[in-house]
Every structure is written in structure tokens, then in C-alpha cells.
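lol ok so funny story. i was supposed to be doing the assay writeup but got distracted and ended up predicting the structure for this chain instead. priorities right. anyway since i did it might as well share w the group, maybe its usefull for someone
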Amino acid sequence: MPDLQAPAQMRCAIYTRKSTTNGLDISVNSLQTQREVCQAYIRCQEHRSWLELPRQYDDGGFSGGNLERPALKRLLDDIEAGGIDIVVVYKIDRLSRSLADFVRLLDLLDKYAVGFVSVTQTFDTSDSMGRLILNILLTFAQFERELASDRIRDKHADLRRRGCFTGGVAPFGFKLAKGGRLVEDEERVAIVRELYERFPSVTARQLARELNARGVRTRQTITKKGKMRGGWAIDAVQITRMLSNPIYAGYVTFKGQWIKAQIQPLVSRQQWDLVQEVKLSRSKSIDPTRDYLLDILHDKHGRRMGTAMIPSRKRKTRYYRSASTAWSRDGRTTPVMYVDADRIEKLTISALQAFLLDRIRLKEAILSLGSYSHSIASSLGKGALAARRLAAMGNSRIRPLLLALVPRAEFDSSMLRLYVCSYELSRFLNWDGIGVFGRSKLQPPRIAEHVWVVKAPSPLLCGEPRFTLPITPCPDATAAPKPWLVEVLKRATHLRELTMANRDKSISQLAHAKKIGPGTFARYLRANYLAPDIQAAIMDGTQPDDLTEWDLLKGPMPLDWEQQRQLLGFHSLGSRV
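and the output, tada:
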């Protein structure tokens, strides 16, 4: 009689979940009850060689509306590692209440040949009917979740109508009491009243500097997860928000209506209205038509750059300035960047015009959309016309054009980067020039994400006066300059001065007077266009050892400094700039 082979053991993992943390500290809780029911079901399947794994996957206090749960992540990792054959749950909504998330989880289980069992909702996912029943049950679970959200939303709306605080972080000057009510924070009430009293005569930025000098910080609180929150320095943006919040005047807003709040106001309604009038009068100095790079220009740290008027001896100069951000409140040294608004705006337009006139780069940007046709080939010839139209536009038409064409621009001390939308670029090339060019409302979702980076050197646009040429001190005091290379630079300087002093003579005449050929004369003049750091390295003797006189005079010499460094072997210098 042949030996019968025992069936392979099916390793079962039990997953449990509870949405809230209430009751988790008692000995018998919802997670324990779910686990016991699943364990009993697995014991009933011993004839099928089901075996419960000892590792527990319990998520207490996590919603089923998303997959951001630690135990679920450990479960998925073990599935991908091949350590689980069946996942057992009490009900399917314990695994997920989202239909889209549940479908993704089922695909993952099918990929690794892992079964799924719901103890109280028996079904088999191996056939189409079982999957249909599963999707129907999950749809009702998601419907129940949405009903709960509607009930919470209606409850919050009713609280707002009654003038109650509906939760969240208490505004500065208040603290949360029992029952979620707002009460005065004795330590900070005086600060709020001081801000409202002084704002009509002092800017928010000046108030922020004074508060930081006095060591004023936001209130520290501990979240339910035990994390410390708050204790940040107060910036101008936060002060502006405080001065715009009607809660300080004793009101809450709901659907555009002002409702008397169930709190004691910190300032009078007349004082609050006066602050709003002052804010409105100051905001009129910001003109999106004039400051057409607003919401587009960012600094090298990714901060949005707003406008600022800085007075000088002769006139007020308009600048773009880095905005304050929450991530820099911890005291880190993150320098604020300034850039002259007129110069950066002119550079932006000129960079776009040069890009439209460059047919090679223009073609690469259009072809990044992933398609080609005769209409695209014909539109490439319209770059010059588009550049002329851009130059003739007024500020009122440039603003919507840039919002469509350049969704983002980044500036640092050496480079301006424009992220040009390839789809809008193709539209702009075929635009008839009538009306105002704006962002298309019919953008294909994937094609609209393609951007082309246009770079424009900007070392002379820094807002703060500083030396911008890439010259650093000599790192090696013992280096010995090569006389023949130094002689090239000296002779190049001498011939340049000779040319400038004799502007009535040609290069050939000057070369004949110096008894050298016109070509040699021109090559020495070309050496004057070497990058400043390359010339400094030659004078210091820290240039590459294989650099020769032939490289400087007869080799290729692009005008771009970075290309010069690459061709002549100055890679280390390029990294220091």
C-alpha cells in the first residue's frame, strides 16, 4: 500500500484592529476578543493542517480608512518574505474600510499566493462569486465609514453654529480646558493685546523680532502619542494669522457667517476692525500685476519668495524675499535670501526669450511629451514669433502667461532655474496672440507633469552686497607657479590693454606692430576670458599638472566657465565654487 504524504502546514497569521484606544488598557478588550474568535476558527481547521503563527499583528487606535498602521506593515513585510500562507481576520473591515485599499491588498495576497479568511463572514476568494460577495461587503463597510464621517461633520457644524470650539490646537492666548472649551492663557493674553495695540504703527516683522528677543514661544503641548508639540518661535506669518482670527474678538465663522463664540474676547470688535483696515492698506502695496513672479519664485531651500520694499538713500528698492517657514522655527541658521525684483524679472523674461529662440532646446522640450507629428515640427519654427510676443507683453498679460508656462522657478546666488511646462509651451508656440494666454483647463493628467528646466546664470543678482566671483584663497602656500603659464596670462592682459588703448587700429595692425601673427594675437586675447578661479589657480600654481600652454592658446575655449573647468581639468575648483 503506497504511503500517503501529509498535507503541508498552512501558516495562519491573525490580524486585529481597533479604531480607538479606549479600553485597550483592560485585560479583556476588543483586540483580545477578535484574536480568541480567530484562534478558535483556526483550531477547527486542524484537519486542513492550519497552524497559528505566534507573532501577533494588533493595531490598537488606528483607523481602517488608510494603510498607515504599524502592525499591518509588519504583516505585509512577512507576507513578502514568504512567512505567511493565510491571513485570518474577525471581519473584513478590520483589515480595511477603503474599497481601493482593500483591492490593492487582495492583489498583493494573490501575488504571493496567500489566502484570506474572514471568520464571521465566510466566503472563498478563489472564485469569482466569492470576490463579488467580498466587494459587496466591503462597499457596505466603506458606506458605514462615510456615514460616521457625515455624523462627525454634522456634529462639528452644529457646534460651530452654537459658537463652540470644535477641536484642534488652541489659538495663541488660549488653552484647552476640560470638555474641549477654550479659556484664557494668563501668560500670553497680554501679548495678544499688545500685538493688536501696536500693529497699526509697527509691522508684523518688527513685532516678531521683538517677541523673539524677549524669548516668547508658542505653548508646548503633549499629543496623545506622547510627542512634544509647540515651543516654537513666533514669526511674522503667524502674527498676521493671529491678527486675522476673529476668535480674539469673540466670534467664530461658519459658512461666511459671524457667530458669537462662547468665550471671553481678548480685544474689542472696534480694535479688531481697525487692525483689518491697516492690513488691507498695507497689502495694497503688493501688486500681482507688477510682482508677477509671486507664487512662482522660490529660493534654494524651497521657500516661497514674497515681495519687500527696502528703503535706501535715494529710493525704495523692490525685492523678492524668502518667506518664513515652520521648519526653520527650531533656531537653525537658514539665511534669508534677497534678490532685486526688477533684475530677476528681466532675467526671467530674457531667459525665456533665449530659450524660445534656441531651436535645439525647444525641440527637446516639446519631444519630452513623448509624441511627434508634423504639427509639432511646424510649431518649432514659431519660437522666434513667440519670443517677440513675449517681449511685447505688458505686466497684466505676463502674469497669467508665467503662471501657466512656468509653474515654479528657483533662485540661488549663481543660477536661476525655470521649470517650463512642456504642454503649455507647445500651446504657447501655436497661440495666435489674441487675448490673454492662461493655463489650459483641459490638460492631459500625465502630459501636464512634464517640465523642462531652463537655466540662466545669475551671480550678480544677489540682494546682499558681496563678492560673487568664484575666487578662493590659495589652499597650498608651497605651490610653485609654472612660469610659462603665468606668462600666458600676463601677455594676454598686456595685449588686451594694448587693444583697448588703440581702438582705431585693427587686430592685424596691432599684431604686425608686436611682430606676431594675427591668429596668435587673437588666441592670447581669448585667454582673458578664462574663469577667474582658473586664472587664480594658474597664478597660485595649483592648476592641474597636465595643463599646458597649448591647452590655453590652441585648445577649445567655451565662454561658459563650467565647461572651461571640465575641459581643462579644474573639477576640484568647480566643486568649491
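The radius of gyration is 35 Å. Residues 483-576 form one domain.
back to the writeup now i swear
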